[in-house]
Design goal:
This protein has 223 residues and is of the alpha/beta class. The chain contains six helices and nine strands. Helix 2 runs parallel beside helix 3.
């Protein structure tokens, strides 16, 4: 019990330090190399998908998960690097983010990558119209509430991972519902529980950190 408590305290402290570093780094625009684009622009206030690992990894994974002509949603798109990868693989892509800066960044990513990407400012599915074949969410997976900055909404999912719970509930009826997580956090298991019944699509180690892509499983009502 004491060991688990110490681990949680350490994880929270480490997460806060990492968040402050990313916040400092995000004060200006800069360019990184990412899957599908050698000059990915990371606008001020937007999370770097390479520094946080999951976004860049997910972009590479999703090229094998989509089919040409399908409509996919890059939920919580950030820079739009995942949406770019899916569009380059032939999918029709809509990037969605609650932060207007991320929406602008995703549009610029599509322009630089030479593909058409629709970008919508929305709190999850509220502003999304039309049928889709699949949705993937590079979700905030740290437990806790954002502290006054929109930037932190990309990192903290709520005390009990409410953002992930809402995503699962609001995506009901979509054929494929995917969620990407890092197992670096002490409570990654709780984040997975919040997502509900799922199967592992891909699990890989990247720079010492285990990353996982889950797909929601339909649960038949009990008789």
């Amino acid at each position: 019990m004491v060991r688990r408590l110490r681990q949680r305290v350490f994880t929270r402290l480490r997460n806060r330090i990492a968040a402050q570093h990313l916040l400092w780094k995000s004060r200006r625009d800069y360019v990184v190399t990412a899957p599908g684009q050698d000059d990915l622009l990371v606008m001020a206030g937007v999370l770097d998908p390479v520094a946080t690992k999951v976004g860049a990894w997910l972009a590479g994974v999703m090229t094998t998960e989509v089919r040409a002509g399908e409509r996919w949603v890059d939920m919580g798109c950030g820079t739009g690097v995942v949406g770019l990868a899916m569009a380059q693989a032939g999918a029709r892509v809509t990037c969605v983010d609650v932060d207007a800066r991320c929406v602008a960044n995703a549009r610029e990513t599509g322009r630089r990558g030479g593909v058409a990407i629709e970008a919508v400012e929305s709190d999850l599915f509220a502003g999304l119209a039309g049928a889709v074949d699949g949705v993937v969410y590079n979700a905030p997976f740290w437990p806790g509430e954002p502290v006054g900055r929109a930037f932190e909404r990309a990192m903290y999912a709520g005390a009990e991972f409410e953002a992930i719970r809402r995503y699962r509930a609001e995506s009901a009826g979509i054929p494929r519902v995917l969620l990407a997580l890092s197992e670096a956090g002490a409570r990654h298991g709780d984040a997975r529980i919040a997502f509900g019944a799922s199967r592992v699509v891909r699990r890989e180690r990247a720079e010492g950190e285990w990353l996982i892509l889950l797909e929601a499983m339909r649960v038949s009502p009990s008789r």
